[in-house]
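Researcher: Excuse me, tokens okay?
***
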Amino acid sequence: MTMLITGATIIDGLAETPLQGQAILIEGKRIKAIGKADELLVADDILTIDATGKYVIPGLMNANVHLLCDIRPETLIRYEGRYEELIAESAQIALKNGQTTVFDTWGPRRHLMAARDAIDAGQMIGSRIYCAGNVIGFDGPYSPDFGATMAQMLSPNFVNRINSTWVENSGRHLMWMTPDEVAKELRTYIAKGIDFIKYAANEHGGQSLGAFISFSERVQRAIVDEAHRAGITAQSHSMSVEGLHMSIAAGCDLVTHCNITGPREIPDETLDYMVKQGCGAVLFPWSDAALKWMRENVDDGTWTTVKATDANARNLVKAGARILLANDGAVMASEMLADPMVQKSWMGAPEEISLGRLATGHFVWFEAMEEKGMAPMEMLRAATRNIAIAYKKDADLGTLEEGKIADLLILDKNPLESAKNYRAINKVVKDGADIDIAALPLTPLLTRPLPEPLPEEAEYKHFAHTGQRFPLCACSAMMGH
């Protein structure tokens, strides 16, 4: 397939200003050339796309998603043996909304890799997937790291089957080991075919709300060194000021949700250290509208943490950190989003301001970062080039250049004029193919509508409803952790 895109303003992610009067020639899966349309040598059988008045940008990337995140027993029992279908649905929703490449930082390794490989082979449509499998040092879905309460309602056999599917040899038992022993286990895990590693600098939640350090400095350095020895990148899950500082010192290529540091703001010393080391800063920002919504819906203790998170995002922009777009993007079943407990969590916020939705959370990210003073071109790079560089995929992805993979979006409106214009997607091109985004997802499972209420539901009177107000993450929200 040869494709020629003409007439558009090209924002390639490299130049400081858009390119005018240029066309993009695509042959096969890669960009053949960028230049004046009448100077490009093209074949007779060519698909020409007239994009006059429109804007072409690199395909968007997301540095932190969870393509199988709905880990409620209701979902994992119903779809056992079909997890690749759930992952495919998520990858198609991401692609439909302009995310041509996503990095899955926690999920069932074998199933993620199967979906990844099927998409790469052209057997399945979806965003390009890179995956880490488990977060090194975390236990499984039905453990204190995520949803131990659910384990009480399930058979030991099912709990063990699910936890082992997520964890394998990469779980909490590593915390007892020496650096050399951890490196050996990690070597085994990397050899299974993951694309990068993510480890727990801080624990996930529990009673400490993520404050506890999971691994010593020596072990963290050993984890990062082992990843780099294998030629893949290393990132950490950080949730405290000290967890962030240790991650940078260990040599992480990027730190996930580095602006989440409990009720404490990141000191200037650590901000400067992060910038100096060139560590990628994966941010979860709240928009002004989302902050207003949370102030009205969360408890005072949670609000203290949210305020610090917001201040950290603004300070990282001012400090000049290399910022990466991410949002814990996930697809949640309709019945989960209808849960009154979830509706009072950050996942339950109205979709137009909700950061964590895989379909739309990246649009919210742009709008939030615009409010925090991030420059328009830097926002685009945070969603393209910066992610490609941090994950060492920039030889093929992240910018529009001759020889690179032809992943791009055609927008009806200029994204440099307003962050809201990222929503104005006209076409998605991935691997040089014009994607039929209207048809995605091909087989709705989690995104299918709620069934019609039973006749009995009109007569059923609830005795009471209780529930936690603000779980920190999507998984905790679902599991009542």
Residues 2-58+403-439 form a domain with the Urease, subunit C; domain 1 fold (CATH 2.30.40.10).
